[in-house]
Amino acid sequence: MYLNVEKRKTQEKCDITFPWFGMDIGGTLVKLVYFEPKDITAEEEQEEVENLKSIRRYLTSNTAYGKTGIRDVHLELQDLTLCGRTGNLHFIRFPTHDLPAFLQMGRNKHFSSLHTTLCATGGGAYKFEADFRTMADLQLHKLDELDCLIRGVLYIDSVVSSGPSECYYFENPTDPDRCIQRPYTLENPYPLLLVNIGSGVSILAVYSESNYKRVTGTSLGGGTFLGLCCLLTGCSTFEEALEMASQGESTRVDKLVRDIYGGDYERFGLPGWAVASSFGNMMSKDKRESVSKEDLARATLVTITNNIGSITRMCALNENIERVVFVGNFLRVNTLSMKLLAYAMDYWSKGQLKALFLQHEGYFGAVGALLELLHPS
Amino acid sequence: MAEFVRVDSSTSGHTMDKSITLPPDEIFRNLENAKRFAIDIGGSLTKLAYYSTVQHKVAKVRSFDHTTKEATGDNLYEISVQEEVTARLHFIKFENAYIETCLDFVKDHLVNTETKVIKATGGGAHKFKELIERKLGLKVDKEDEMTCLIKGCNFVLRNIPHEAFVYAKHADSEFRFQTTQPDIFPYLLVNIGSGVSIVKVESEDKFERIGGSSIGGGTFWGLGALLTKTKRFDELLQLASKGQHTSVDMLVKDIYGGSYGSLGLTGDLIASSFGKSATADKEFSKEDMAKSLLHMISNDIGQLACLYAKLHNLSRVYFGGFFIRGHPVTMHTITYSINFFTKGEVQALFLRHEGYLGAIGAFLKGAEEDNPNQYSWGENYAGSSGLMSVSPDMNPMQRARSGTFDMLEMDRLEGKLVNLPLLQDASSYIPDTVDLTEDAHAREYWLYCFEEALDGVVKRAVASQPDMPEAAERAEKFRQKYRHKLQTLRHQPFAYGSLTVRSLLDTREHCLNEFNFPDPYSKIKQRENDMALKYYQKAVKCLDELSWEERQYALVRGVLAGNVFDWGAKAVSDVLESDPEFGFEQAKRQLEERPWLVDSYDQWFERLKGPPHKCAMFFVDNSGVDIILGVMPFVRELLSRGTEVVLASNSGPALNDVTNGELQILTESIAAMDPVIQAGLREDRLTLVQSGSSSPCLDLSRLDKVLAMVVRERKTDLVIIEGMGRAIHTNYYAMLRCESLKMAVIKNSWLADRLGGKLFSVVFKYEVPAPSQHSAALTPS
């Protein structure tokens, strides 16, 4: 991505004390990015307080924290120059409902003695601000989540140069056999539609680094997929739900155009395979009794994904934008949804719209918060 | 997607007694002459449509032959009752469970054998094809569902005033009916069946499915059944209406602790539907899950509808389909969603006869050779059951009623009805002065008033047909029917759209017609016309003796005094009945002295000193003294000034209002004694037109095409509207593009009281359109 400003900024030296964190507290997940300096001088090492060392060691030597914290090692960005310092950027997540345990850990490790500013975004920065203060004696610097999101996206795309391309798309999205992931270079990114799929969905039209607007949003998002799956199948995690969905068949649950017309509905140019009514077959008692949990999980995934696709497509038309970048943790390990979105964008727009995806799908808000710490905008 | 999927009646769980005895003559009316059948079979309801002719009696007037006139005594004209055949459309809605019984009944009573084909639409048409063909011996001809739906939609929007409404759950009146737009196109129809179809309609034959969604009524039903183990759609809605979505949904405040201020997202907004069921490890109640699902689906449909409306720049969005049909819960959630996403710029509109659209459209497809669209049609209040009460919850009584039969009847009107070309803004014109659905106090009074007057109307009806021994029995049936209508309206004021004094009067006329009392006042009108004519020359002579200045005032007082003679007003009909000597002079004495309650006589008088008007259109009121001694001298003066006059009178009878037929005879007879009137007729400066209406009130948006043509051709620059029904109950606030004069005497003490006057207060409202509305409003009074 074309981003000299942010790149230049990050090469200037600053004297912000370590540790450097950026945090995004969402409705379902907390996303944490941590910059581990690798260029620590002997002198610095001498001065470094024990607490700081222990935090660094704890975060970099583990890939799992407590019962639910996870470090996405494959996303780690190495030898990154940030603020004149070189180091690795780590990406960590844990469920929002485990935030008390995280705060407890912060308290145990005397995090507050480091006198650092903790930059946080997402709704939780507001909701849990008091808890940070009372439970861990930490003062949050609260940031707007959409500002952070856009800053994060633009930055990551500009710094990733080695390894798999940050931005990618699916070639031949309408042909399952030939559909493959391809790198994409966002040279002139604007205008673009940025669709962030977390628990809910926000759709932003971005015209420049600082000029963007939230076009709309929908409450049918990742939280809806997982929530309905939990109720319908008894599963309890996103991974479980996705696993089930991958083995199910949604056409047993949904009513298709061909189920009604025996084929295409030519009068309106609707193909027979199109879903006429999501969960439409479930109106019949017999069919309710014959579907599997996997089928239900798959139908839920398809329903939510297609709906996001059609709202996005309408926004793109209304805003006259042809490029759409999908981000958010709903897409994590969710190739099914990404391919569905790619297909839907391509098919219904007759090739006009391109669906793009980013490797660090859910972490941009947290990255934006970290950048705000180093270079207040 | 459209109602592509209609579910078998078995899965909807209805267990109806199929051998139910129907009250058939009440439901399948006029079957003997029925032809052109159409049927729309949905998931649970069947709609049958047919075209029939109705024979009913009409009173006709005929001038006596001049040569024998001397021999026929006093009467100027004779009245004869004739049989007239009019066209009527019948639509009947019933549960699918009754289909066999109904088809049997139709077969048994069908006399007309020309019919060979029945048009069919709806998902069930296929399933019942064989049954229909066997039972009726007609060939089933299937029509495209969406085409039928759009055709039906265009038809009701065009022909039924107050067809569309806005739903407001917490308002005093839940239904806010919309005025009929002169141009119904373009609009968006969002049909929520199993899936959702979004159709853009640009003209009668041009429409396009511009989008849709698979998340629709089938998703609510199917997913709802899985989540709550509740099978029926209605039951799911009932569960939803009792639930709390906030325990299942993740709200903005669940994430933020409050609102997301910088984006203006309030804390109560749903951030993630079912978001809490992903994290909270607990049981959720069926009610709460159903409610959450309802919100999720309604919001999603509303959002898509708004996005499509915006993309195509459309502001009229109608919602229909089984998800909506008469369900207050879904109408409310859809309305909420549209308001949210468009910030109030677009209103969700619903239709009173939404359930009939497919049947109407299928019927129209089959009736194309009769050219139904070249006529205007009017809802027959006597034969239609009206909108069902849906407020506030679906109670068992109402559910029971929806399980029976619902009817809609439409009468074919003479020719096509159009707007008065002089309306300032036809799209915002509302004929009625008070909407009784919104004014509970006024509603109570008028319903009481019409009920009180019922005995008198029955008596008059019987008296009008002295030679018919069964008249009393018919009049009694009329009484029951109209009283039942009044009771229905007491409980469901919105049953026929906006409730107004006009609709109450029209309903009474429709009911009288239904029982063959076409013109109960014909003989009274005849007698009064004859009597008044005797005084015409004397009255004119008196006026001619006055100075110009005095005469102008006397003419206005004459019109007002004449207007006191009104059998429609209870206060007056009492006097008329008890004191037949109540004369024109006495009426003048009864009139309020100036200044009148509304008094712009001085401005009118000043105007008269100026150049004459080019052409005046006079909407007249009552027979007898009113038209002959009040209006005609006034008309005579206008003619003398050099103004052309067009007299607009009712096409058909209503109370003692003068009809076009009567007025023609009266005018000729006056012309015989008055050279001014005679010259006016001869030189074509005085013409008579019919209004196209048979109502004691006046709807300036539904007038005879010829009238509108005359207005344009003659460059009408003055409109005079006379009488309480036409100038007070309706049109009091009507804004015209030319000068207008509204004259009436208030003959109802309650209304007088309301307007701040007393019985026989005078309204004389002369208005000149302001060059600019805005500057006029800013001028201090």
From TrEMBL, chain A:
<comment type="similarity">
    <text>Belongs to the type II pantothenate kinase family.</text>
</comment>
<keyword id="KW-0808">Transferase</keyword>
<dbReference type="GO" id="GO:0005634">
    <property type="term" value="C:nucleus"/>
</dbReference>
<keyword id="KW-0547">Nucleotide-binding</keyword>
<keyword id="KW-0418">Kinase</keyword>
<dbReference type="GO" id="GO:0015937">
    <property type="term" value="P:coenzyme A biosynthetic process"/>
</dbReference>
<dbReference type="GO" id="GO:0005524">
    <property type="term" value="F:ATP binding"/>
</dbReference>
<keyword id="KW-0597">Phosphoprotein</keyword>
<dbReference type="Pfam" id="PF03630">
    <property type="entry name" value="Fumble"/>
</dbReference>
<dbReference type="GO" id="GO:0005829">
    <property type="term" value="C:cytosol"/>
</dbReference>
<keyword id="KW-0067">ATP-binding</keyword>
<keyword id="KW-0173">Coenzyme A biosynthesis</keyword>
<keyword id="KW-0963">Cytoplasm</keyword>
<protein>
    <recommendedName>
        <fullName>pantothenate kinase</fullName>
        <ecNumber>2.7.1.33</ecNumber>
    </recommendedName>
</protein>
<dbReference type="InterPro" id="IPR043129">
    <property type="entry name" value="ATPase_NBD"/>
</dbReference>
<dbReference type="GO" id="GO:0004594">
    <property type="term" value="F:pantothenate kinase activity"/>
</dbReference>
<dbReference type="InterPro" id="IPR004567">
    <property type="entry name" value="Type_II_PanK"/>
</dbReference>
<comment type="subunit">
    <text>Homodimer.</text>
</comment>
<comment type="pathway">
    <text>Cofactor biosynthesis; coenzyme A biosynthesis; CoA from (R)-pantothenate: step 1/5.</text>
</comment>
TrEMBL record, chain B:
<dbReference type="InterPro" id="IPR002791">
    <property type="entry name" value="ARMT1-like_metal-bd"/>
</dbReference>
<keyword id="KW-0378">Hydrolase</keyword>
<keyword id="KW-0547">Nucleotide-binding</keyword>
<keyword id="KW-0597">Phosphoprotein</keyword>
<dbReference type="GO" id="GO:0015937">
    <property type="term" value="P:coenzyme A biosynthetic process"/>
</dbReference>
<feature type="domain" description="Damage-control phosphatase ARMT1-like metal-binding">
    <location>
        <begin position="452"/>
        <end position="758"/>
    </location>
</feature>
<comment type="subunit">
    <text>Homodimer. Interacts with PKM.</text>
</comment>
<keyword id="KW-0067">ATP-binding</keyword>
<dbReference type="InterPro" id="IPR036075">
    <property type="entry name" value="ARMT-1-like_metal-bd_sf"/>
</dbReference>
<dbReference type="InterPro" id="IPR043129">
    <property type="entry name" value="ATPase_NBD"/>
</dbReference>
<comment type="similarity">
    <text>In the N-terminal section; belongs to the type II pantothenate kinase family.</text>
</comment>
<dbReference type="InterPro" id="IPR004567">
    <property type="entry name" value="Type_II_PanK"/>
</dbReference>
<keyword id="KW-0464">Manganese</keyword>
<comment type="function">
    <text>Phosphatase which shows a preference for 4'-phosphopantetheine and its oxidatively damaged forms (sulfonate or S-sulfonate), providing strong indirect evidence that the phosphatase activity pre-empts damage in the coenzyme A (CoA) pathway. Hydrolyzing excess 4'-phosphopantetheine could constitute a directed overflow mechanism to prevent its oxidation to the S-sulfonate, sulfonate, or other forms. Hydrolyzing 4'-phosphopantetheine sulfonate or S-sulfonate would forestall their conversion to inactive forms of CoA and acyl carrier protein.</text>
</comment>
<dbReference type="InterPro" id="IPR015844">
    <property type="entry name" value="PanK_long"/>
</dbReference>
<keyword id="KW-0007">Acetylation</keyword>
<dbReference type="GO" id="GO:0016787">
    <property type="term" value="F:hydrolase activity"/>
</dbReference>
<dbReference type="GO" id="GO:0005829">
    <property type="term" value="C:cytosol"/>
</dbReference>
<dbReference type="Pfam" id="PF01937">
    <property type="entry name" value="ARMT1-like_dom"/>
</dbReference>
<comment type="similarity">
    <text>Belongs to the type II pantothenate kinase family.</text>
</comment>
<dbReference type="InterPro" id="IPR035073">
    <property type="entry name" value="At2g17340_3_helix_bundle"/>
</dbReference>
<keyword id="KW-0479">Metal-binding</keyword>
